[in-house]
Amino acid sequence: MKTDITVHCGNSPKMERVIDLTVALAKKDPELVKQHVRDDFTWKTVGGETVISFEELDQELKNRPPVKELSVTNALSHGNGAMCEGTLLFEDGDILQFCTVVKFVNTAKDALIKEAHTYFVNE
Questions:
Q1: Does the pLDDT value for residue 79 go beyond 90?
Q2: Quick one: average pLDDT of 71-79?
Q3: I want to staple 26 with a disulfide (CB 3.0 to 4.6 A). Which of 69, 70, 77, 79 is the partner?
Q4: Three-class SS of residue 80?
Q5: Mind telling me which SUPFAM superfamilies this protein's record contains (predicted)?
Q6: Using only C-alpha atoms, what is the Rg of the chain?
Q7: Are 66 and 28 in contact (CB under 8 A)?
Q8: What pTM did the predictor assign?
Q9: Domain range for residue 35?
């Protein structure tokens, strides 16, 4: 999978963590995802009714279509929250714009992610 990350300030650990989580989800790599989240992590795709728990993550990622290219165009963090947005190009040619908003367990620079909400829009 090709990645293009145009946002990188190098001094915001939580911004880096939300970008790393986004890359791990796009790569469909549950072990990499689990490095950034707590055991009680939940992930919701906004607009859908499914909330994916930490235990369901492996199977959910297997069911997602393969991503050919990920482009991250914006990322921000403040307090115990962060967001990352960009574009996903899938192997079948479909393109989705996304925005993932995360909530960390606290404001510490090494805090793990407790929950994520991802918004998808067809391009």
A1: yes
A2: 95
A3: 70
A4: coil
A5: NTF2-like
A6: 13
A7: yes
A8: 0.93
A9: 2-122
Residue 60 has a CB neighbour count (10 Å cut-off) of: 16
81 with 88: CB under 8 angstroms? no
Residue type, 88: L
What is the rounded average pLDDT for all residues in the chain?
Answer: 92
* Domain CATH for 94: 3.10.450.50
- State pLDDT tens for residues 3-54: 999 876 667 899 999 999 999 999 999 999 999 999 999 999 887 767 899 8
Q: Mean of the pLDDT values across residues 77-105?
A: 96
Nearest to 64 by CA among 24, 102, 12: 24
Give how many domains the chain has, as a whole number: 1
Contact at 8 Å (CB) between 120 and 47?
Answer: yes
